[in-house]
Amino acid sequence: SAAYSPVQSVNPPDAPWEQSLGASIFGTPQYMLPVDDLGEAVPPSWQHRNQPAPAGLRLAMSWLELLPSADNPQTSITIHGVPYTATLGPSGRENDIYLFQQ
Hints:
alpha+beta; 4-stranded antiparallel beta sheet
């Protein structure tokens, strides 16, 4: 049998290290979930209509950097496949977000 060589285990022949690292960190695009559908962030009683954004949805939008702001007063999101425009309310605060069904 061949003698054990640590070089073989450290340097796999299949792909350069950079390619392997990129693939493992970022995954392949076809398997990534769409980040703009926020259906999981609304309550089970959600009804599609124009309305203020509930707290859980605002939190998810903040986490994903989708909240409207003074610099970007409108953003687009999807809730259970239904497109919405999110707008900053008159107060200009993060907890004053309105949703308009498209």
